[in-house]
Amino acid sequence: MARNTQAPGADLFGHIVAAVVVAVVSSHCAPTDAPPEGDSTFTALQERGKSAMGVDQYASAHVFEPLPDGGRIVLQMRTADSAGASVIRDHMRDIAGAFGRGDFAIPGRVHAIPSVPGTQVMSRLSAEISYAPRHIERGGEVRITSWSPEAIAAIHEFLAFQREDHHVH
Question: What is the rounded distance in angstroms from the CA atom of residue 66 to the CA atom of residue 35?
Answer without folding.
Answer: 24
